[in-house]
Amino acid sequence: MDKTVLTFGEIMMRLSPKDHLRIEQATEFDVRYGGAEANTALSLAYQGDKAAYVSVVPANRLGECALRSLKAYGVDTTRVVRQGDRLGSYVFEVGASQRGNGCVYDRKYSAINMAKRDVFDWDKILKGIDVFYFSGVTPAVSDEMRRLQGGARRLPRQGITTVCDVNYRGKMWSPEKSQATMKELLPLVDICIANDEDAPAGLGMTCVSGSLAHGIEERDTYVEMARQICAEYGCKKVASVVRNISCVERSIWMGMLFDAESGEHWFSPAHDVHVLEGVAAGDAFNAGLVHALINDFDPQAAVNYAIAASILKLTIKGDSNLVTADEIAAVANAADGGTRVAR
Fold it and tell me: Helix, strand, coil % (nearest 5) of the chain?
């Protein structure tokens, strides 16, 4: 039986200056919609999985546009609460060479930011759900969302697999607040996803250096990070994207998966990638990993597939990873990493 994955978080309007312009130069913006959990739900649906999404979105035309961007690709949005006045937004500035990508949030007073935790009927929301996915962005949205423990605490009792991407956002909350929150949430989580940026700030761990220039060379530290997360919080699996980033347009990406029961770990091959747009590739990795696990891939195949999904996202503009399971599998299984024209 197909498993249903429910993701929980904020969807926003994304505004981007065209042609690599800086915000100060822009006279027009490209409009798209996205958010960490929304991106993951869309990617899962595009891969053929049953994906649902829950959030709070204003009952106006902008809110409808945001939800339509998910429904168009098969995401079930019937659990979304429609209330409030504002859809959050952010301006994403695409960098070049040594000038990194930039992001300016405008999400204060958004519908979900202003919502009370009791707007969610968790008994109804969780009905028929097999996997519940969220990230550290969601509790960072507001104190009400941070205190939203009622729904999460029901999950283990209902046999629902929980997946959390730590996904630390320094513009949204402090390391201290993130670490205190994760200490409460991660004991409820089966599969934790964390990288070199999340572990130090989001979890207070010092085993990974956070060096984007030397991540691949330090891959053993990611295994140690995974061991520590499983030992401290009881997570069953930990996954990571391991990266070497030399500039905005080029990076080397590798995936890692650790299993607490066996103590084994698996790394994907390293991919040298030309980056068209470096946003939401982590969400694509997470969707690829969840797809692989709910479809019973073996661990090596799962991490190979997840990183293939991630690097394909780096070739696509916008937040949405519009690639099929067959396209991802073709990259994951390519012996030489090459590409051919699909004829």
Answer: 35, 25, 40
Identify residue 89 by its one-letter amino acid code: S
Q: pLDDT tens across 178-220, in order?
A: 999 999 999 999 999 999 888 889 999 988 766 665 577 788 9
Looking at the chain, which runs of residues are DSSP E strands? 4-8, 12-17, 29-34, 50-54, 56-57, 81-82, 89-93, 102-106, 131-135, 161-165, 191-193, 237-247, 250-259, 265-267, 271-274
Alpha-carbon span 99 to 155, nearest angstrom: 42
Of the CA atoms within 13 Å of residue 41, those in its CB half-sphere come to 33
For residue 190, give both structure tokens: 């089966």
Check whether 337 has a pLDDT greater than 60: no
Question: What tokens does 272 get?
Answer: 């040298």
Q: Which pLDDT does position 250 carry in this prediction?
A: 86
Q: Alpha carbon 96 to chain centroid distance?
A: 23
Please report, for residues 22, 212, 230, 248, 326, the alpha-carbon distance to residue 94 in angstroms, rounded to integers and kept in the order given: 8, 18, 36, 9, 29
In this predicted structure, the answer to whether residue 66 has a pLDDT above a threshold of 90 is yes
- Kindly report whether the global pTM for this prediction surpasses the value 0.85: yes
Q: For the packed helices 299-313 and 325-333, what is the interaxial angle rounded to 10 degrees?
A: 110
Please calculate the CA angle 266-281-69 and round it to the nearest 5 degrees: 135
Reference 33, options 47, 53, 5; nearest CA is 53
